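We modelled the chain as a single entity of 187 amino acids. Its sequence is:
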Amino acid sequence: MGQEESHTEEIELEQIQDLCMIFMKECPSGSLHLHEFKRILGIPSSSAEESLYIETIFRSFDTNQDNALDFLEYVAALHLILRGNLEDRLKWSFKMYDKDGNGKLDRQEVKRIIRILYKIKFQTSDVGMTPSEICDRIFELVDQNDDGQITLSEFMEGAQKDEWVMNLLKLDVNATGWVIQNCGKLP
């Protein structure tokens, strides 16, 4: 698998600069709140699953946990979402799965994200498995020592060994597409 990109479209540097200008215009205080982040990414408020997913993304980039992204957190988020390499995206995905921040994933944490992804990305006919079955399969393929937890190294190795696992673990629901589609529509 190597350093394969997870994006089907490459975002231009000029578009990233436009998004930075939007930040400065929309957030003169220097703080971007969740509802503004959703608007910038073009997430409709009517989509509960996408909204929950974006909230999870937002929290993963709010490194100082002040419920707002400052400019540096915002730029880091854009860079990772839009241009990050596979290893960085997998580390970020692990962080998003790891809700309690203990450095290990348990079944509840994995099921939580799988349920969100299942509603956004998959149809039952696409996978033929329930979120619980998907979670069980991930643990079967990735939990090398069968201790019921997945470490970062197990996560990284498991994702790179199996394409099915990679597609689930890298948490790609086309954020690049959202940004490209909505960048020009913002005030």
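As a brief sanity check on the tokenised model: DSSP finds eleven helices and four strands in the chain. The beta strands are 31-32, 69-70, 104-105, 150-151.
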